[in-house]
Amino acid sequence: MEEPGVLSGLRSRLLLPRRAGRAASSLCWVLPTAVLCTYGFFSSLRPSEPFLTPYLLGPDKNLSETQIFNEIYPVWTYSYLVLLFPVFLLTDYLRYKPVILIQGLSLIVTWFMLLYAEELLAFQFLEFFYGMVTATEIAYYSYLYSIVDLNLYQKVTSYCRSAALVGYTVGSVTGQILVSVAGWSLFILNVVSLTSVSVAFAVAWFLPMPQKSLFFHHVSSIQERKVDVVKVIKELWKDFLQCYSSRTLLCWSVWWALSTCGYFQILNYVQGLWEKVLPFQSSEIYNGGVEGVATLLGAVAVFVMGHAKATWATWGEITLALFSSVIAAAVFVMDTVHNIWVCYACYVIFRMVYMLVITIATFQIATNLSVERYALVFGINTFIALALQTLLTLIVVDVRGLGLDIFTQFMIYAGYFAVISIVFFISGTVSIIKNCRQKERRNESEVNTT
Q1: What distance in Å separates the CA atoms of residue 229 and residue 93, rounded to the nearest whole number?
Q2: Do 178 and 172 contact (CB within 8 A), yes or no?
Q3: From the CB of residue 266, how many other CB atoms can be counted at a distance below 10 Å?
Q4: 112-134: per-residue pLDDT in tens?
Q5: Alpha-carbon gap, residue 115 to 188, rounded angstroms
Q6: Candidate ranges 139-143, 197-201, 240-244, 389-393; pick with highest mean pLDDT
Q7: 247-277 and 371-392 helices cross at what angle (nearest 10)?
């Protein structure tokens, strides 16, 4: 009668290491994920960001519209473009954590300069540091891939994105409440933002240091290794050729690059449009509330799309054309109907549609790619988007180009998305006709063989 007890005890002792291993494995991803999500929340919680343009135009800084829109804001585009590829390689070489710390430090420098900078050159340097912030985002979203198992990628990615999204939404809504209800000044809002990003920087120090990365450090090891940079570049080039040989991936990537260029441009200058329609100094504005609503509805749209089924292989390009036309119409109405509530509503539609379609594009591109190629493809797509945005900024915005006023700029952006819509409608129609003809030929050949 004692044997079952003995066997039970032996089984428990045998299973104990396995259970301990599972617990250790769980702890290995839960702890760094929690720390990274905390960092993402506080680094995105910046209540002053929706009120940046009114702050710079107001008595605190007293900058002119020409200085802000044509001389300061374009620096962000240029610096983001220049820094993106070096940061992409540096992130992998340094194994993520140091670059996350650089991002946190850049956020602190950006908001410290927002509080105390006075000269035009200082604000241009501020935009450079903000370009560093956006360029180093790749470290935030790729850090966990080096320390968790493949089957956890989707889960930890959703956690990281959700943390940043919630932080941005809470920051925007908090900023609106503090301005509209509590009557806080925009200067104090920037102090709150500086405090929040400082907390994020402190939290980032608690991240464990990964022992491996995707390209430079394939195998986890505490020993120093000689890094073959030339070999890494060759591998990247080989992956690049293989990835973009797919017409479907190329199609979605082209839309990604073109639309992201326009999205960044509108996001960069929309506060200037709102300020022209309804100046902050003369009336109540709701930029923070609108940003919060736009982000929230965009997240809902993304969630719904995650459960929708569609034949993207057949109707993908037509869908891209349709949504691009919706964006073009929203930007056009925003530009021509000089009513702040119409502007706000169109902006919500614009952001919601973009977030929806970029999620579809992300899924379509990532479906047949490994994580290494995922990082490469989205890095290249973003680089192309920034190159196009730089060209658009130089021609349309910069004082060395046309230096157009804000309303003319947004008319051009509306036309830009309209052209994207037309191009993808034509391409999609041709693709559908070709597919139909191929089906007819296959059916005819099947009939003849029978």
Answers
A1: 10
A2: no
A3: 24
A4: 999 999 889 999 999 999 999 99
A5: 9
A6: 197-201
A7: 40
* Strand segments (E) across 169-224: none
Task: Decide: helix, strand or coil at residue 449.
Answer: helix
Structure tokens at 437: 């003809």
Residues in the chain: 450
pLDDT-based confidence at residue 150 (cuts at 50, 70, 90) = low
Q: How far, in Å, CA of 292 to CA of 297, rounded?
A: 9
Contact 316, 364 (CB under 8 A): yes
> Which of 139, 159, 164, 135 shows the shortest CA–CA distance to 49?
164
Q: What angle do CA 309, 315, 319 make, to 5 degrees?
A: 90
> What per-residue confidence (pLDDT) applies to 307?
59
Closest CA to 333 of 355, 354, 348, 322: 348
Give the tens place of pLDDT for each residue, 49-67.
999 999 998 888 988 888 8
Give the other-Cβ count within 10 Å of 119's Cβ: 8
Dist CA 241 CA 237 (whole Å): 6
> What is the C-alpha to C-alpha distance for residues 37 and 167, in angstroms, rounded to an integer?
10
Assigned token pair, 8: 């039970």
CB contact set of 328 (below 8 Å; sequence gap of 6+): 414, 415, 416, 417, 418, 420, 421
Residue 440 corresponds to which tokens in the numbers above?
């007819």
